[in-house]
Amino acid sequence: MTARPANAHQARLLRLLRDGGPNSRARLGDEVDLSRSKLAVEVDRLLETGLVVADGLAASRGGRRSHNIRLAPGLRFLGIDIGATSVDVAVTNAELEILGHLTQPMDVREGPVAVFEEVLTMVGKLRDSGLAEGFDGAGIGVPGPVRFPEGVPVAPPIMPGWDGFPVREALSQELGCPVRVDNDVNLMAMGEQQAGVARSVQDFFCVKIGTGIGCGIVVGGEVHRGTTGSAGDIGHIQVDPEGRRCACGNRGCLEATFSGAALARDAESAARDGRSPELSSRLERAGRLTAADVAGAAAAGDATSLDLIREGGARTGQVIAGLVSFFNPGLVVISGGVTGLGHTLLASIRTQVYRRSLPLATGNLPIVLGELGQAAGVTGATRLISDHLFSPA
Amino acid sequence: MTARPANAHQARLLRLLRDGGPNSRARLGDEVDLSRSKLAVEVDRLLETGLVVADGLAASRGGRRSHNIRLAPGLRFLGIDIGATSVDVAVTNAELEILGHLTQPMDVREGPVAVFEEVLTMVGKLRDSGLAEGFDGAGIGVPGPVRFPEGVPVAPPIMPGWDGFPVREALSQELGCPVRVDNDVNLMAMGEQQAGVARSVQDFFCVKIGTGIGCGIVVGGEVHRGTTGSAGDIGHIQVDPEGRRCACGNRGCLEATFSGAALARDAESAARDGRSPELSSRLERAGRLTAADVAGAAAAGDATSLDLIREGGARTGQVIAGLVSFFNPGLVVISGGVTGLGHTLLASIRTQVYRRSLPLATGNLPIVLGELGQAAGVTGATRLISDHLFSPA
DNA sequence: CGTCTTTGTCCTGGCGCTGGAGAAAGTCTG
DNA sequence: CAGACTTTCTCCAGCGCCAGGACAAAGACG
C-alpha cells in the first residue's frame, strides 16, 4: 500500500508538487504560509514515507542554491475511460503526465465482464511495455450515473448489465490499488480543469457531445454530482415538443435531435434521399456513416453536412443558453467525439448562447473547445484518484 | 461594534446556539468534539465578549444540573427584502426568530433613494415599537443580480437607477452596523433552508414566481451565485420559439409566458374577451387584475383561470424539468407571490417534471411549496448577515 | 444518608509551532 | 581573489495550546 499524507499540510504540498512540478523547499514555503521549521518537518516526513524524493539542486535565486524535491518518480496512476463505443487506458506519473495511452473500440453494452477483461489486457500491455511495475491508484469513468461514495453505476440507460456492478471493488481487487469511479463526463471536466482550458476556473461546465450528450459541472473547483449522481444528464432536455421520439420515451430530447448517433442517422437519411452526393458516395464506400463522415463532408464543403451541424449546434446552443442563465458559469467547454465538427459547431452554439442569455451572464463568457481531446477523460481519471490519495488519510 | 468570534470553534458554537436554541455546555460538548477544558475556555471567552450569556439551569440528565447558555437576548438582526412591488422589513433576535415584521407596497423603480427613505422609515417604526434599540447587523435582498463581495447591484433589468448603487455601504452608514446584500431569490432559498422546508437539505433550488421568475441555487449547503452574480436568472429561458415577445428582446421567455405580471395580463385579456364571467366581474370591480384575482377566481371554480394556471405551471415545469436533469437536486421549492395558486400550480409543475426528467433524478425528488411565505426573504436576509457575523473575524 | 451519575474546574504533562541564531553555500563587486 | 551580501537550511529555546486525569460540586435514587 502506498503511503498517504498524514495531515492537510502534507496533502497541500503533494498537490502543489503535482500541479507545479518539482520545486524547492523555499519556493514551497512562499506558497503555503508555514514557518520554515514546520515546512522542513513536513517535507522530511514526506521524504521518509517515500512519496517525495530529493531531486538535485535548484537554480540560485541570488544566494545559496536550494535542494529541489519532487514527487516520487516511480509513482504510477492509471486512468481508464470507458465510453459508449471505446475504451481508453493511460498511465501517468505522479504529475499526471501521460506516459502511455491505448485506445480500443468496444461496445459498453457487452457488459462489465467483457469490458473488464479488455481493460485488464490493455493494462497488461502498458505494464509489459515497461511504463509501470505496479499502480498506486486508478481512476475509472463510465458512461452513466454513478453512486460516487460506493463507486457503483446506478440505473445506467446505455449500459445494461452494469447496474449495481461493483466497479470499484472489482477493479481494486484486480489491480491491488485504490480505485475511484465516476461518470465519464465528470472526469472529462476534471481533465480540462487539470491540464486543459479550464485551469484556474472555479465555476464552469464541460459539455461532451459524443454518442450521447452529457455535461460535467464544476462548482467552486469541485465536481457537482447531484443527489443521486445523475447531475449533468442534459441529453434528455426537451428542445422540440414536436421532435423525434427518443429512446427514453419522450419527444424531442436534445440527444435524439443532435448527438453522434443522431447525426449519423440524419446523414444516412440525407445520403439515401440524394440530398448530398458527397454523403451518398461516402455511404456507398463504407456501408454506413458516422459523425466523422459528416465532419469530413463538411470540410469538403458539403452544404447538407454543414446544415446538419449548424442545426445541431443551434439546438445544443439553445439548451446551453438556458443552463448558462441558470448557472452563470465562467467558462463553457465543448468536447467529445464531435471535435471534428469543430468551429462550425462552436460558432453555431455561440450564436445561440450569446443571443439568448442575458448580457450580464454572457458578457465575459468564453465558449471554447476542449484542448485535450482523447486525453481529457483519462487525465481526469488520474486526477480523481490522485486527489483522493493526496488527501489526509 | 458588536464582538465577533475569534476562531472557528467559537463560530461553530454560535451557529449551534442560533440554530438549536439555548443549550448546556455538556450538550454542546456532545456536538463539537472538543475536550471539556477547551470547550469551557471558548465558552468563557464568548461570555466575556457578551455574545452569549448564562441562562439558568438546564433540566437534569440524571446527575448534576448544567448551566445553560444562550445567545445574548439583546442581539437584533434586521432583514430587508426589497421586491419588485413591495418592501418587507423584519427584526429578529439572534436565533433568527421574527419579533416584528412590516410590509409596504412600493415600486422598486422609484429608485434607491426613495426606497431607502421608505425602508428607513419602516426601520424607525420597528425601533420605536421597542423591539430593538440598535441593530447588530442587517441583510438586504434586491430583485436583481448583485456583485456579492461589494454588495452592489449590477445591471439589474427591472430596477433602473440601482445599477452600481452602493447599497451595502449606504445602508451600513445609515444603520451603523454591518450589512450584506444579496439577490432576493437567494435569500428566499436561505430562508427556507434556515427555517422552512429545506432544513438539512444540502442541494436544492428554490423557484420564486412573483412579478418575475427567479431561482435560488444551493450547492453543498452554500448559495451558488455564479461568476457575475446572475445565477438563477431563469426567467428568460425560452419555452416557446413562437411565443410572446419579451421585454428582454427575445421571444417566448418563461417570464413572458408565465409570471405574476404575465398572468395578470392574460387574465385581463380573457376578461375582456368575455371568456370568463368571473374574471370579467372582478375586472369591473377593481379596474385591473392581479395574480391574486386569478387565484381567487380559480378557487371559485372558474375554468379559464384554472386553465391559465395549469398552462403556466406546465411551462414552468418544463423549465424545471430541464434544470432537474442538469442539477439533480434533492428538493425543489416553489415559492413567491403566487403561492395563492397553490396546489393547482404545484400539481401541474410536478406532472411535467416527473414526466420529463429521468426516473433516477426524480425518483426521490420532493417538489413542494415554500412554507415561510412572506417571511422567507427576511429570514434569509438575517441568516445571511448572521452567517457573516458568526464567522471568524 | 450513602452511593452513583453528571457537570464543572483545576492542573500537569506533552506536543507542536514560531522565530531567532547561526552555519552553509552561492553570488557579486571591486 | 577576498570580502560583503544574499539565500537556504538546521538547530534550539521558549511559548501557547490542548487533552485528559483528578477532584469538587450538585443532584438523582434507593
Automatic annotation (TrEMBL), chains A, B:
Question: Cross-referenced PROSITE patterns, in alphabetical order?
Answer: ROK
Protein name stated in the entry: ROK family protein
Lineage of source species: Bacteria, Bacillati, Actinomycetota, Actinomycetes, Kitasatosporales
Similarity annotation: Belongs to the ROK (NagC/XylR) family.
InterPro entries tied to this protein: ATPase_NBD, ROK, ROK_cs, WH-like_DNA-bd_sf, WH_DNA-bd_sf
Q: Superkingdom of the source?
A: Bacteria
Per the UniProt record, the source organism is: Streptomyces gossypii
